[in-house]
Amino acid sequence: MEGITAFFENLGISLESAILLSFFLSFFALLLVYNRRAREEIARPALRSISAFAELDRYLAAAIEKGQAVHLSLGTQGIGAVATADTLAGLEVLERVADRLAGVGVPLIVSVADPTLFPVAQEILRRVYTRLGYGEGYDPRQVRLISPERAAYAAGAMGIISREKIGANILVGSFGEEFLLLGENGARRGIKQIGGTSSPQILPLVQVTMDEPLWGEEIYAGGAYLSAKPGHLASLRVQDWLRGAIILAVVLGVLALTVF
Fold first, then answer.
1. 51-226: which CATH topology?
2. I need a labelling partner for 236 at 20 to 30 A (CA). Which of 46, 57, 65, 227 fits?
3. Strand, coil or helix: what is 195?
4. What are the domain boundaries of the chain?
5. How far apart are CA 79 and CA 113, in angstroms?
6. Average confidence score pLDDT of the chain
7. For residue 30, how far is the Cα from the chain centroid?
8. In Å, how far are 69, 107, 191 from 66, measured between CA atoms?
9. CB of 102 closer than 8 Å to CB of 142
10. What average pLDDT does range 127-140 have in this prediction?
11. Whole-angstrom Cα distance, residue 260 to residue 249?
């Protein structure tokens, strides 16, 4: 081990940086391989069932049938924040929801807390409406910037849920304790709700308020489940492989330290 550490130090690279670099290169190489295989439909992975993603279209169909609006919250952080991955997961869900609701006359209300997320959400909506041939129906006011302050955002989003005739409430992104306020408000009104976040501290609140909860990193699989694009499927497959490799490395490391 000391020889390996000295080798990398001679190259001006710390051992930690070398390990991270090796994981990055492995991820990138595997991603290219699986992306190509997925595009050629050689090895599309079999995905386990995630109930929330399976039920999403049914909830949207029910809202369309009743002529009720759909509210989608993208969380309380934005692009470039600590929980950017959670925010991007919410944007994947936004694209799917917009794809289903464009042109059917059912309002889609998107609430955001961070100014960096505001134009991104608007652009996703505009792109979806244009792609489907409903460009004239796109309204930038569908995306509502409320407040970067968590409590103020929760109050504003609760106001939307209370005032509008909401048929489905979707919460996917980065949340704190305000998740309970949003989820409880929707639950009291009998609104069908799907939601999740990666924070372990907030998962109990997800469980008690959502009809269809998304557990932790399940939110990151939204792109693969909802769009089935080769890039998303390849990324999901590579994540599974690397997760297994990390677990194996930890187990072998513990055994090595225990035995030797």
1. Rossmann fold (3.40.50)
2. 57
3. strand
4. 16-45+231-259, 51-226
5. 11
6. 83
7. 22
8. 9, 12, 12
9. no
10. 91
11. 16
